[in-house]
Amino acid sequence: MNKFWLLIVFLMFCILIPSTAVASPEAPSQKTAKEELGFAFHGNQKSFKFHAPDCRYYNCKNCTIILHSLNESQKNNFSPCGLCKPQHYHWRLEKKKQCAEPENFPTTPTPTPQTTPVPSAIETEKSVVDGKG
What we know:
Residues 100-133 are annotated as: Disordered. This protein is an alpha+beta fold. The protein has helices spanning 2-20, 33-37, 70-75, 89-100, 121-130; strands at residues 41-43, 49-51, 65-67, 79-80. A hairpin with a 5-residue loop joins strand 1 (41-43) and strand 2. It is elongated. 13% of the residues are buried. Residues 19-32 have low confidence and may be disordered.
């Protein structure tokens, strides 16, 4: 009888202790698409079009579905908006970042093009009078 209770206590110890006493590592909190990428696409639940954040239809009343990627939008049968073309949004962001970086701005002023001097009216009259023109 003693061995039976010892076995029961041991089994309970093995079952209960790992779940309570031993701290299991917490799963990393899942970031939303906006936190991870800096933006999220919005899908229109009626038209099944999805929009980029710079689109004028991004916050329309029917755009309630948040899409985390282009793959997710395709998986859920959403088609890209013809106005904002969200499939090119990553490219537009990269262009904006490149334009905003200071190393892309010229540090020295660009030289002005050299122009040939235009003869003045007096010089033109002299050449006509002298018979050179």
